[in-house]
């Protein structure tokens, strides 16, 4: 019988070495043993992806290895996600999320998406390499409370600025969060974003903060 820590190590190692079978087996063991699936995602697979990211920066891994690592991650997420209890954070909302045009790096976006779903949000996932106007159209169609934009490259990051401007023109109440490796708090502020996230947990905290502020505005409007 594997301990929780051993399962996490298997998940982490499987992601790093792009071994889908190992990740799936360890994820199933987490479920079978009744271990905490939420912690297993972050202590195991996300920890593995952090190592993979470092390998990529050091040019030890390249795009093909990154994609295989991501596939191993998703194999584990498919098993663990149904066993992560949805928590009532006191705020519910709809979120549009996607990776901006020209960028196909969606690993971070997919982890953030899982976090939102676990927290009880309705998530409208536009995927990767999303035309900038699609974010605007989807927000208007769904009347989502928040739009989350992701970019992993400096060259694609600037598309976020246009999306923020267009959405704010049409719906000033919509909250916009941006994230990704090149994004900073300073950039988010300059471009008019309501928040930025460095990782999935931070994204969820920022989302709750922004939606709580939005709810307070609505409540004040009703009272007035």
Helix and strand succession? HHHHEHEHEHHEHEH
Tally of individual helices: 10
- Strand order within the widest beta sheet: 2-1-3-4-5
In percent, how helical is the residue content? 55-70%
The CATH architecture of the largest domain can be named as: 3-Layer(aba) Sandwich
Strand content: 5-15%
Total of domains: 2
What does the largest sheet look like? 5 strands, parallel
Mean of the pLDDT scores? 87
Briefly note the structural class of the backbone: alpha/beta
Radius of gyration: 18 Å
**3D shape:** globular
Low-pLDDT stretches are: none
CATH class of the largest domain: Alpha Beta
Number of strands: 5
Instruction: Tell me the CATH topology of the largest domain.
Output: Rossmann fold
What is the name of the CATH superfamily of the largest domain?
Cobalamin-binding domain
What is the rounded distance between the termini? 60 Å
Can you summarize this structure?
By secondary structure, this protein is of the alpha/beta class.
Task: Tell me the layout of helices and strands.
Layout: H1 4-16, H2 20-33, H3 37-57, H4 63-80, E1 94-99, H5 107-118, E2 122-125, H6 132-142, E3 146-150, H7 154-157, H8 159-170, E4 175-179, H9 185-191, E5 195-197, H10 200-223
Parallel strand pairs: 1-2, 1-3, 3-4, 4-5
Helix pairs in contact: 1-2, 1-3, 1-4, 2-4, 3-4, 5-10, 6-8
Would you write up a description of this structure?
This protein has about 220 residues and is an alpha/beta fold. It folds into 2 domains: about 5-85, Methyltransferase, Methionine Synthase (B12-binding Domains), Chain A, domain 1, CATH 1.10.1240; about 95-224, Rossmann fold (3-Layer(aba) Sandwich), CATH 3.40.50.280. Helices cover about 60% and strands about 10% of the residues. It is built from 10 helices and 5 strands, in the order ααααβαβαβααβαβα. It has helices at about 5-15, 20-35, 35-55, 65-80, 105-120, 130-140, 155, 160-170, 185-190, 200-224, and strands at about 95-100, 120-125, 145-150, 175-180, 195. It has a 5-stranded parallel β-sheet, with helices on both faces. Strand 4, helix 9 and strand 5 form a beta-alpha-beta unit. Helix 1 packs parallel to helix 3 (about 35-55), helix 3 packs antiparallel against helix 4 (about 65-80) and helix 6 runs parallel beside helix 8. It is globular. The model has no long low-confidence stretch (mean pLDDT about 85).
């Amino acid at each position: 019988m594997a301990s929780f820590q051993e399962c996490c190590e298997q998940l982490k190692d499987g992601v790093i070495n792009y071994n889908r079978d190992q990740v799936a087996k360890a994820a199933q063991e987490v479920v079978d043993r009744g271990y905490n699936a939420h912690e297993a995602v972050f202590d195991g697979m996300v920890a593995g992806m952090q190592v993979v990211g470092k390998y990529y920066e050091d040019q030890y891994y390249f795009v093909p290895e990154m994609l295989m690592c991501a596939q191993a991650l998703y194999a584990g997420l498919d098993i663990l996600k149904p066993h992560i209890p949805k928590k009532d954070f006191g705020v519910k909302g709809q979120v549009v999320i996607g990776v901006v045009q020209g960028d196909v790096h969606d690993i971070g976006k997919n982890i953030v998406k899982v976090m939102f779903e676990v927290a009880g949000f309705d998530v409208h996932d536009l995927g990767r390499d999303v035309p900038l106007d699609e974010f605007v159209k989807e927000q208007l169609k769904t009347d989502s409370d928040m739009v989350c934009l992701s970019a992993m490259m400096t060259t694609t990051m600037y598309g976020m600025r246009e999306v923020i401007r267009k959405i704010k023109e049409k719906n000033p109440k919509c909250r916009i969060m941006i994230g990704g490796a090149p994004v900073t708090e300073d950039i988010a502020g300059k471009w008019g974003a309501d928040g930025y996230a460095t990782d999935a947990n931070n994204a969820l905290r920022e989302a709750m903060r922004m939606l709580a502020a939005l709810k307070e505005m609505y409540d004040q409007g009703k009272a007035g």
